[in-house]
């Protein structure tokens, strides 16, 4: 089947009928080209969305107190729910499946930080040690808050890179004391965060310290936790457990949707991922139909080609070509044209994606790094070759059935 | 080498059936130079097609070199054609996008001869036809006479036992026609049976045996002036 002579026959024919070959191949090349562009764009969309989510750990749950909307056990609706250290302790120690958990409370107010002559107003976040898993923060110097800091209510702080640049400039910050709302705190670490500049205009302090010094009491505004390897269902269970605990402790109806604000990034993320899957399927469907159109185009043209070459086929048969040899001739030509133009479409598609890729390296427009999966491209080309064979089969059988005497009759 | 016994052939055209060959009995021996004549519709082309296994017959028997030719598969027929028969047509029937050499070499391609070898042999035949310088020209760049000679070279290259020519001089002027007939005579001297279908008297007179078809059967069968029918 692969003897050189046959290929030369086919190439000869193709070479001497360039326009016809081009027309045949064009629809196929176009089909693959469109498929690659669509798939690449789909990937670009997916990457962009994934990137936008980079800021938070994917499997995190964020709970903050809200306002009841339903009356419960004698209490009116409209009650503010305020979480406490107790809630944090209880959840952390009794609920299975929680990987990391941290409390946090907001510090409103002007929050002045100063070092020597430099100062500025920044965000102060009192947290537990596990908080470092909640944001995608990376410690670049020193360490994060630890258990001992919490237990001993130490006045230590971990500062964002931007704060280091503003307050310390070139000076190494570790071990130095900065004034946090006029209270000296020792810098024990510096962090960076991919989430953006505003994430790094922040200092973390031990929550126990902040509760003692700044606000008193045991108030917590937010509990955040990660669910590790838990599935979507398991994560939901964890959330229900916490809701149950908080509902019974703070006396609100567990069905009350407003009593707590719960943000489950996994859920949101899965929603987007489902959307992406749907979009992907949609793209494939379009791609496949485009390819089908291409294949029909090839088949069409091959039919015409066979008609065109009736006399030639008749001559070949008169000279001694077997029906198999004729089928082979037509079929191989169809497959060659399909495979080759498929390849051209592939190269052009990938090339175009490479060309526009440099303009989309950030996820600003929810579109980043549009690349087509190479395996997909390979599968698509194989599909094409098979399709080419199918497309060429009917014309080929037709050609084989040509009666030489009819073919050779003077037209 | 060719024996036809009571051969019948009908064509169905729509609802009508045309009985073209109505019982042909014919024997052609090795190395004969025969012409088959007859008016339009007498069945001479049909007869030639059956001899060349390009068409099937209904009843009777066709023996070629003692092989019964009946109900052959397309593949078998193609194989036998390639081995025993060379065709020459009125309209030459060369492949338009191949040059002279490639056209002549084509039958050898179906005998699985390698490219280099068959091109070499093709050049030899072209040389014999006096067309060596035209080997790389396309058919549409050559005259009718030259094209027919290329077609004849193509018919000869597979070393057939029989050459079947259907109005080979039909598209040529008289001078060229006579040249082609001289060519057939030469080929015949090498021992190849040549059967020519023609309606031209002066062409048939250049053969050794004239068979006349009339109304689907053999009328006259003249050899050396003597009618054997």
Report the largest inter-chain contact: A-B, 28 and 30 residues
Strand order of the largest sheet of chain B: 6-7-8-3-9-10-11
Strand residue percentage of chain B: 25-35%
Number of E-state strands of chain B: 11
Helix content of chain A: 40-55%
From the 3D structure, determine the CATH topology of chain B: Rossmann fold
Helix and strand run of chain B:
EEEHEEHEHHHEHEHEEE
Radius of gyration of chain A: 34 Å
Helix content of chain B: 25-40%
Number of helices of chain B: 7
Strand content of chain A: 15-25%
* Count of DSSP strands of chain A: 14
Mean pLDDT of chain B equals 89
Radius of gyration of chain B: 18 Å
| Topology order of chain A in helix (H) and strand (E) letters | HHEEHEEEEEHEHEEHEHEEHEHHHHH
The average pLDDT score of chain A comes to 83
Q: Class by helix and strand content of chain B?
A: alpha/beta
Biggest sheet details of chain A: 8 strands, mixed
Largest sheet of chain B: 7 strands, mixed
Structure description:
- The complex is a heterodimer of chains A (411) and B (229).
- Chain A starts with a helix and ends with a helix.
- With 411 residues, chain A is of the alpha+beta class.
- Chain A has 13 helices and 14 strands.
- With 229 residues, chain B is of the alpha/beta class.
- Chain B has one domain (30-56, 74-227): P-loop containing nucleotide triphosphate hydrolases (Rossmann fold), CATH 3.40.50.300.
- Chain B has helices spanning 44-51, 74-84, 100-109, 115-128, 144-157, 174-189, 201-204, and strands at 2-13, 16-28, 33-37, 59-64, 67-68, 85-88, 162-166, 193-197, 209-214, 217-223, 226-227.
- In chain B, the strands form 2 sheets. In chain B, strands 6-7-8-3-9-10-11 form a 7-stranded mixed β-sheet, sandwiched between helices. In chain B, strands 2-1-4-5 form a 4-stranded antiparallel β-sheet, with helices on one face.
- In chain B, helix 6 links the parallel strand 7 (162-166) and strand 8 (193-197).
- The two termini of chain B are 19 Å apart.
């Amino acid at each position: 089947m692969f003897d050189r002579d046959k290929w030369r026959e086919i190439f000869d024919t193709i070479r001497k009928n360039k326009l016809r070959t081009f027309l045949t191949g064009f629809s196929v090349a176009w089909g693959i080209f469109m498929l690659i562009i669509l798939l690449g764009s789909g990937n670009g969309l997916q990457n962009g969305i994934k990137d936008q989510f980079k800021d938070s750990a994917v499997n995190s749950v964020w709970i903050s107190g809200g306002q009841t909307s339903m009356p419960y056990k004698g209490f009116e609706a409209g009650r503010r729910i305020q979480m406490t250290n107790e809630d944090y302790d209880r959840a952390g120690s009794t609920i299975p499946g929680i990987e990391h958990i941290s409390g946090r409370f907001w510090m409103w107010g002007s929050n002045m930080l100063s070092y020597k002559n430099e100062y500025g107003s920044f965000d102060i976040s009192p947290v537990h040690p596990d908080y470092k898993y909640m944001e995608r923060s990376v410690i670049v110097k020193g360490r994060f808050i630890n258990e001992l800091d919490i237990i001993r209510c130490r006045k230590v702080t971990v500062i964002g890179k931007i704060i280091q640049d503003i307050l310390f400039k070139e000076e190494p910050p570790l071990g130095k004391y900065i004034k946090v709302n006029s209270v000296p705190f020792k810098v024990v670490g510096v962090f960076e965060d991919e989430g953006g500049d505003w994430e790094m205009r922040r200092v973390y302090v031990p929550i126990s310290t902040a509760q003692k010094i700044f606000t008193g009491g045991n108030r917590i505004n937010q509990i955040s936790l990660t669910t590790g390897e838990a599935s979507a269902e398991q994560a939901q269970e964890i959330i229900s457990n916490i809701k149950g605990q908080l509902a019974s402790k703070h006396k609100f109806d567990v069905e009350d949707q407003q009593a707590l604000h719960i943000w489950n990034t996994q859920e949101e993320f899965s929603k987007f991922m489902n959307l992406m899957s749907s979009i992907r399927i949609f793209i494939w469907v379009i791609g496949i139909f485009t390819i089908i159109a291409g294949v029909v185009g090839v088949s069409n043209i091959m039919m015409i080609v066979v008609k065109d070459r009736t006399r030639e086929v008749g001559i070949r048969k008169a000279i001694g070509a077997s029906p198999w040899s004729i089928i082979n001739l037509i079929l191989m030509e169809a497959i060659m044209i399909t495979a080759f133009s498929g390849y051209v479409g592939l190269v052009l598609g990938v090339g175009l994606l490479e060309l526009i890729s440099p303009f989309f390296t950030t996820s600003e427009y929810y579109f980043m790094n549009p690349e087509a999966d190479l395996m997909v491209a390979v599968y698509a080309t194989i599909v094409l070759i098979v399709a080419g064979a199918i497309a060429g089969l009917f014309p080929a059988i037709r050609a084989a059935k040509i009666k030489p005497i009819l073919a050779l009759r003077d037209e | 080498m060719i024996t036809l016994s009571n051969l019948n052939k009908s064509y169905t055209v729509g609802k009508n059936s045309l009985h073209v060959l109505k019982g042909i009995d014919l024997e052609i021996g090795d190395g004969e130079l025969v012409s088959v004549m007859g008016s339009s519709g007498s069945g001479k082309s049909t007869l030639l097609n059956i001899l060349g296994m390009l068409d099937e017959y209904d009843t009777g028997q066709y023996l070629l070199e003692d092989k019964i030719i009946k109900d052959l598969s397309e593949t078998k027929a193609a194989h036998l054609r390639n081995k025993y028969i060379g065709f020459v047509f009125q309209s030459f029937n060369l492949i338009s996008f191949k040059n002279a050499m490639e056209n002549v070499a084509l039958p050898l391609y179906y005998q699985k001869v390698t490219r280099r070898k068959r091109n070499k042999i093709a050049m030899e035949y072209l040389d014999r036809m006096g067309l060596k310088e035209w080997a790389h020209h396309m058919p549409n760049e050559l005259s009718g006479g030259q094209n027919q000679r290329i077609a004849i070279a193509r018919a000869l290259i597979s070393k057939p036992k029989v050459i079947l020519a259907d109005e080979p001089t039909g598209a040529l002027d008289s001078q060229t026609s006579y040249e082609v007939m001289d060519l057939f005579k030469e080929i015949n001297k090498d021992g190849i049976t040549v059967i020519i279908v023609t309606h031209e008297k002066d062409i048939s007179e250049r053969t050794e045996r004239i068979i006349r078809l009339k109304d689907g059967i053999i009328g006259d069968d003249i050899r050396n002036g003597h009618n054997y029918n």
